[in-house]
Write the C-alpha cells for this entry.
Amino acid sequence: MTTVQENKKNGLKVGIGKLQDGQLVAVKLLKKLKGDAEEFFNEVASISKTSHVNVVTLLGFYFEGSKKALIYDFMPNGSLEKFIFNKSNTLELDQQLSWDTLYGISLGIAHGLEYLHRGCKTRILHFDIKPHNILLDTNYCPKISDFGLAKICRREESIVSLLCARGTVGYIAPELIIRNIGGVSHKSNVYNYGMMVLEMVGKRKNIEVTIDRTSEACFPHWVYRC
C-alpha cells in the first residue's frame, strides 16, 4: 500500500494500493468499531453478488482477528460529493461537471439501482445512496459503493422488515422512521436517489445545520418555498 489517509468522519481508513500486475486498487480498512464485523460481512455478501457497470467491483477482502479490509477497483475521480459541494471553489474549471455530465451520472446511478432491485438473483436494498457513496471513474461513469447497510432479500419480497432505521440523515425515507405510514421496500432507495438528485441540481446539501433560518435548513422545503 502506497498511501493511507484516515477519514475521521466515519472512523475508516482508505488507502491506495498496487497489485502485482501494477493495477491500482482502493483499500478500505475498518477499525475495531462496535458492529463493524456485521457491516464488513454484510458488504462482502452484498457486493459479491453483483456485476454491473454502475456498481463498484469488489476485488477481494482480508479478515484476520480485528483486522478487516475490502479491496476495490480504484476510482481516480473520487466521490461525487466533492464535485457538487465545492463551496470553496477549489476545483479547476476543467474539473467542474457540466449539466450533461451530471445528467449522465444521475442516469447511471438509476441504472445501477434498477440492477440491484431487479437484475440480481437476490434483491439488494442499499439504504445509503448519497453523493459520498457514488464513485467516479476516469470517464465520470458512476459506481454505487459502500454496501455496509445493505439488506439482501428475495426478489418476490415487496416489503422487508428492519429492526431499526438505516441510512444517513437527510436521505432516509420517511417509512424507515415512521413505521405506520408504509412498509419498507426498494422504493426507500428511490427516495434516497431523489434526495441526492436534488443536491446535484441545487449543488447544496439537503440539510444545512449551520443555517440560522429554519425555513432554509431543509433543502426540499427551501425549494418548495421558492
In short: The chain has a mean pLDDT of 81. The beta strands are 3-7, 12-18, 24-30, 58-64, 67-73, 123-125, 134-136, 142-144, 151-153. The first strand starts at residue 3 and ends at 7. The helical segments are 36-47, 81-84, 99-119, 187-202, 214-217, 219-225.
